[in-house]
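Per reviewer request, we include the raw input and output of the structure prediction for the construct analysed in the revised manuscript.
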Amino acid sequence: MAAFAATLLRGPTELREMRHLLTSWLGRTDATAVVRDAVLLATHEAAANAMKHGQPESPVSISASRDEAGGFTVEVTNLGGWKEPDPGHHGRGLALMSELMSEVEIQTKTSVRMLSGASPPEPTLRSETSLEIPVPKRMAVLKIFEKAAKAVSDRGTDSPTSEK
């Protein structure tokens, strides 16, 4: 199977098209949906990081290939320089990529190489309707729900179904 290659020139608006092209390429493999989704999300995150932290006029190159064992190698590179994030701002991109892929290697500040095994561990299901989430991730999910609940309560009691 031919390798995947894309170059993003115009910025974040091209991420959507890259995801569609990569989805199509991954769909021609016999990889599981879990593996395809992990490769897609990790690649999107790496490309978004390359755009955000690299030089604005520098193209972002993405390549992906499949090895004989069924794993994937993805490389994302921005040939420009590196812009440090704002002080106190630490994104979750590298942690997300590390969670999704079996190996993440920062080759330079503007180049990342990621490896995915043929079959990452499937999520642990406790029942048909609940998903086991590790404690640190569970806390992050709870914070998201707490923020959403606060936003709803801050809006007051006005709702489409309330009487006025």
